[in-house]
Specification:
Blueprint (H helix, E strand, L loop, with lengths): L3 E11 L2 E11 L2 E6 L11 E4 L4 E4 L1 E6 L1 E2 L2 E2 L5 H12 L3 E7 L5 H15 L7 E8 L21 H10 L4 E6 L6 H9 L4 E4 L6 H10 L3 E2 L15 H8 L4 E5 L7 H10 L5 E4 L11 E5 L2 E6 L2 E4 L12 H12 L3 H16 L16 E4 L5 E6 L2 E3 L5
Parallel strand pairs: 1-4, 1-5, 6-9, 9-10, 10-11, 11-12, 12-13, 13-14, 14-15
Antiparallel strand pairs: 1-2, 2-3, 5-19, 7-8, 16-17, 17-18, 19-20, 20-21
């Protein structure tokens, strides 16, 4: 028998609007019903949860996350992947892309193997939807916290082999579109349904526009590690702000981007083209100290991660619930809009919105209960309840 959960007295964020004081029935791995009545629209439930006026949101989808709680996807071990998915699921992430850093060819292959094998296991934690390759095809001028020793021009033959060996696993690839061979690779990737993003790039406005014509559709951590906006040279940032075809990731932690610039981005982008990410590294969930990111030493102080040499920001210690809360409380984004940025929009970019990313009957039961003051209270992933992370 399929177990059913009735969540009543909730403010349910749906694609059509907020259902106030309504209820949702989860039946096994799926959402069975959404009802304006607190009594629910489904059959008798095995478990009844009183939301007490809290927000019911679709689970967060993080397309750009490197690690957490002491583990990094580059570790390429089952234990590391379990640690990362467990930590971030406890902070509201119900699905994610395992994100690499610029590294040698064989290290990237190790991650692909590890994620492929891990996805064959049953896990109650955040689902690994696939892999986001961030680098190594980036600009030497904008390495950020990527190891410059391993930056190489786009190697189409590498990617062709990886896609052949691990079909369906690579879901996003970040590169500098101005580099030699990038446009050919962009078109090839787009033809296979892989999201191509600009990042760590010295591209001009015109070069980004050319790349969009070739199939580029996203920008990673907007404003960070890219050419900035100038009124005579719009740069990568100007292209991201003005071209409605580009989905913009943003790290909403108050350190990477000023709230005013996030507000500007939110006003500039269509409602379905702004995506919250964490860009979290292994230090997320832990205290200050010395950490490693792609072979580079990172110092975390007061929750801010910076390279020990050069002082560049090095990923973040952010979680998706904190990013969600930040854009609501500090930027002034509405709860439904913030939910779209954290769930629906990444699902659309990945082509999985028919399966997840909103509270809709028939979709996966990836659901979050958040208190009126935006504390994460309860989490369901595929209908199974997961404990929130508590420090």
């Amino acid at each position: 028998m399929t177990s059913k959960v009735l969540i009543a007295n909730a403010n349910i964020v749906t694609e059509e609007g907020v259902v106030s004081g309504g209820s949702v029935v989860l039946a096994g791995e799926r959402i069975e019903s959404v009802s304006p009545s607190s009594a629910g629209g489904g059959s008798a439930a095995d478990v009844v949860v009183d939301a007490r006026g809290g927000w019911l949101l679709p689970g967060f989808i993080d397309v750009h996350v490197h690690g957490g709680y002491g583990a990094d996807f580059m570790d390429a071990t089952p234990e590391a992947l379990e640690t990362i998915t467990r930590f971030h699921s406890g902070n509201g992430t119900t699905a994610m892309l395992a994100t690499t850093v610029t590294a040698p060819h064989d290290r990237i292959v190790d991650v692909l193997k590890a994620v492929r094998d891990y996805r064959q296991r049953e896990t109650p934690y955040a689902r690994l939807l696939g892999v986001h390759l961030e680098g190594p095809f980036i600009s030497h001028k904008w390495p950020g916290a990527q190891n410059p020793a391993y930056i190489v021009p786009p190697q189409k033959q590498w990617v062709e082999q990886w896609v052949a060996d691990y079909p369906g696993l690579i879901r996003q690839l970040t590169l500098a579109p101005e580099t030699e061979g990038a446009l050919e690779l962009i078109a090839w990737l787009r033809g296979r349904g892989i999201v191509v993003a600009a990042g760590h790039t010295d591209a001009t406005y015109e070069q980004i526009e050319t790349a969009v014509e070739a199939g580029l559709s996203q920008a990673v951590h907007t404003f960070n590690a890219m050419t900035g906006l100038h009124h005579r040279k719009p740069g990568t940032a100007g292209a991201v702000l003005s071209d409605d075809r580009i989905a913009a990731e943003v790290i909403a932690d108050g350190h990477h981007v000023h709230p005013a610039c996030i507000k500007l981005l939110a006003r500039a982008k269509p409602a379905d083209k702004l995506i919250l990410i964490t860009d979290a590294m292994a230090a997320a969930g832990l205290g200050d100290g010395l950490y490693d990111l792609g072979g580079l030493a990172v110092v975390v102080k007061d929750g801010v991660a910076r390279l020990k040499e050069g002082d560049s920001l090095a990923g973040s210690t952010l979680t998706m619930i904190d990013a969600f809360r930040f854009v609501v409380e500090k930027v002034g984004v509405s709860v439904p809009d913030a939910s779209r940025m954290a769930s629906g929009n990444p699902a659309r970019q990945l082509g999985i919105f028919g399966e997840t990313g909103s509270i809709t009957p028939g979709k996966r039961a990836d659901v979050l209960l958040v208190t009126p003051d935006l504390r994460l209270e309860r989490i369901w992933i595929g209908g199974r309840e997961v404990e929130p992370f508590r420090k």
